[in-house]
Amino acid sequence: LIAADGQISGNKNTNNLLESVSFLRGPEDTCFEGGVFPAILSFPSDYPLSPPKMKFTCDMFHPNIYPDGRVCISILHAPGDDPMGYESSAERWSPVQSVEKILLSVVSMLAEPNDESGANVDASKMWREDREQFYRLAKQIVRKSLSL
Amino acid sequence: MDTRGIEQMFDFQRLPSDGLILLLLLLYSPVGFCLMLLRIFIGVHVFLVSCALPDSFVRRFVVRVMCSVLGLHIRQNSPRLRDKNVKLYVCNHVTQFDHNIINLLTSCNTPLLEGPSGFMCWARGFMELGGGVASKAELADTLRGYCSAPATTPLLLFPEEDTTNGRAGLLRFSPWSFSLSDSVQPVALTVKRPLLAVNVPDSSWLAELLWTFFVPFTVYQVRWLLPVLRQNGESHQELANRVQELLATELGVVSTQITKADKAEHIKRKRHIAPHTTRSNLGARPRTVPQVFLGPSPGAEDPRVMRMVHQVKEVLPDVPLSVITRDLLRTNCVDTTITNLLESTEQYHTEPAEGATSGPARPRTSITPSIAVPPATLKPAAKSFGRSPADRHMSLQDRKTALYEYARRRYIEKHGLNVEEDS
């Protein structure tokens, strides 16, 4: 069970050790501030040789998160596959990475979207062109995540 | 502040602390051992006699006289106050033989709440409940049936469920005992004995019996109080609190909110630091259990507050009940209290491990809130890795709830939202 910078994570249920639920808090002083976002980390059977997959289970609107919640971040990509084609292998998955590090990376990704590798094209576009609108949407998502 | 803490409610050392009394005890001990051997043989006879004679005035008289040979002197005052119609006596619990003593004054039955039924249960004078009584609810049902049946001997219960030394405070009365009957007769029991403590936690009844034989005498003073009737619309808990208050006044002690579980917890904690602890630093060392426990804290009896306290306790199992109660009485809101407790840097989580390694010598500075603690450590993290998967899952659930509560609170504060409006 990990507690890293306000994130908590634990086994989702007792019979599936390969899936873990994490709760990420939106980083301070960003548009996602205050939110609590649940995400499932699924570990492949050959973990830690292969990276786990991360998927948000709540609504997210973010340039690096697919509309279905999957997270697109370099630390979760093995050095071989590169869907976008411009990630340096230094920041890729390696067996020495830890869940804590993944969560930290995802939190920093929430703080600073990388609009070059857009997983959600709409969000990337909005992030580039209409920052105000993006902030408004983010705020709604934060509220929704807290069910307020 | 009330200086009488949980420490004062139990005698943890059987031997006295006073040097003079210790010397006297040393001189007495050869006599005591002889007396003990003699009394073991007489005790067997007492047991056989009490088995042979039918339960009647004659048996009670004979056994009572024989018991005074064993060093058990029983006194009672105002036996006329004993109400024949009352089906339920409640008594404070001092030693493991309380029920035998009361039984010598009037015939009554006490169910054994813990431990297997069988020969030992019967021999110690407990009532045997037919079949395996699994849960407390089931037990209460059985006893309620027993109480409502006509022409049965009254039931004697110890709602404290555990022993105290009877000098400082009463443990919290459990409400289920009061669900059995609408009228209860409180019985105040004081036990006095020279040289030694009357009861120490964690000793078996056999050891207690031998110590009873060892000391010259033990005086049991039984006082019957007027029966208490349930008032209209009074809940079990309210009745329990009222009777507890009555008994406490009669005994000249305070009624506390400490439960049997708190006592067990304290003993456990004590055991961890015991090797380092000497009597002399008991006063100097800051107690791990806050003293707020004691004393009738205003409103603590209020069932609504109790319920809220339990809600908070579910989320933050590490925080002592007293701290929660204190905060709740101030805030009167579960959410606010959780936030306060999460945000406060008070470190009441004195884990046993810490106590064991650091010992009492190290001054605990943790009572003073330190600003230096980074906010990250405030987050509800598991204090230990649960043994079973279910435990771990529960821990996750609790921490998750706490995290959400905290985040929600922060958000509302920050944005000045009105919850009712938005939810």
TrEMBL record, chain A:
<dbReference type="InterPro" id="IPR023313">
    <property type="entry name" value="UBQ-conjugating_AS"/>
</dbReference>
<keyword id="KW-0547">Nucleotide-binding</keyword>
<dbReference type="Pfam" id="PF00179">
    <property type="entry name" value="UQ_con"/>
</dbReference>
<keyword id="KW-0833">Ubl conjugation pathway</keyword>
<dbReference type="GO" id="GO:0061631">
    <property type="term" value="F:ubiquitin conjugating enzyme activity"/>
</dbReference>
<comment type="similarity">
    <text>Belongs to the ubiquitin-conjugating enzyme family.</text>
</comment>
<dbReference type="InterPro" id="IPR000608">
    <property type="entry name" value="UBC"/>
</dbReference>
<feature type="domain" description="UBC core">
    <location>
        <begin position="1"/>
        <end position="147"/>
    </location>
</feature>
<dbReference type="InterPro" id="IPR016135">
    <property type="entry name" value="UBQ-conjugating_enzyme/RWD"/>
</dbReference>
<keyword id="KW-0808">Transferase</keyword>
<comment type="function">
    <text>Accepts ubiquitin from the E1 complex and catalyzes its covalent attachment to other proteins. In vitro catalyzes 'Lys-48'-linked polyubiquitination. Involved in endoplasmic reticulum-associated degradation (ERAD). Required for sterol-induced ubiquitination of 3-hydroxy-3-methylglutaryl coenzyme A reductase and its subsequent proteasomal degradation.</text>
</comment>
<dbReference type="GO" id="GO:0036503">
    <property type="term" value="P:ERAD pathway"/>
</dbReference>
<comment type="subunit">
    <text>Interacts with AUP1 (via C-terminus); the interaction recruits UBE2G2 to lipid droplets. Interacts with ubiquitin ligases AMFR/gp78 and RNF139/TRC8; recruitment to lipid droplets by AUP1 facilitates interaction of UBE2G2 with AMFR and RNF139, leading to sterol-induced ubiquitination of 3-hydroxy-3-methylglutaryl coenzyme A reductase and its subsequent proteasomal degradation.</text>
</comment>
<dbReference type="InterPro" id="IPR050113">
    <property type="entry name" value="Ub_conjugating_enzyme"/>
</dbReference>
<dbReference type="GO" id="GO:0005524">
    <property type="term" value="F:ATP binding"/>
</dbReference>
<feature type="active site" description="Glycyl thioester intermediate">
    <location>
        <position position="72"/>
    </location>
</feature>
<protein>
    <recommendedName>
        <fullName>Ubiquitin-conjugating enzyme E2 G2</fullName>
        <ecNumber>2.3.2.23</ecNumber>
    </recommendedName>
</protein>
<keyword id="KW-0067">ATP-binding</keyword>
UniProtKB/TrEMBL annotation, chain B:
<feature type="region of interest" description="Disordered">
    <location>
        <begin position="346"/>
        <end position="394"/>
    </location>
</feature>
<dbReference type="GO" id="GO:0043130">
    <property type="term" value="F:ubiquitin binding"/>
</dbReference>
<keyword id="KW-0256">Endoplasmic reticulum</keyword>
<dbReference type="GO" id="GO:0005789">
    <property type="term" value="C:endoplasmic reticulum membrane"/>
</dbReference>
<dbReference type="GO" id="GO:0036503">
    <property type="term" value="P:ERAD pathway"/>
</dbReference>
<feature type="domain" description="CUE">
    <location>
        <begin position="304"/>
        <end position="346"/>
    </location>
</feature>
<keyword id="KW-0472">Membrane</keyword>
<keyword id="KW-0551">Lipid droplet</keyword>
<dbReference type="InterPro" id="IPR003892">
    <property type="entry name" value="CUE"/>
</dbReference>
<dbReference type="InterPro" id="IPR048056">
    <property type="entry name" value="AUP1_CUE"/>
</dbReference>
<comment type="similarity">
    <text>Belongs to the AUP1 family.</text>
</comment>
<protein>
    <recommendedName>
        <fullName>Lipid droplet-regulating VLDL assembly factor AUP1</fullName>
    </recommendedName>
</protein>
<dbReference type="Pfam" id="PF02845">
    <property type="entry name" value="CUE"/>
</dbReference>
<dbReference type="GO" id="GO:0005811">
    <property type="term" value="C:lipid droplet"/>
</dbReference>
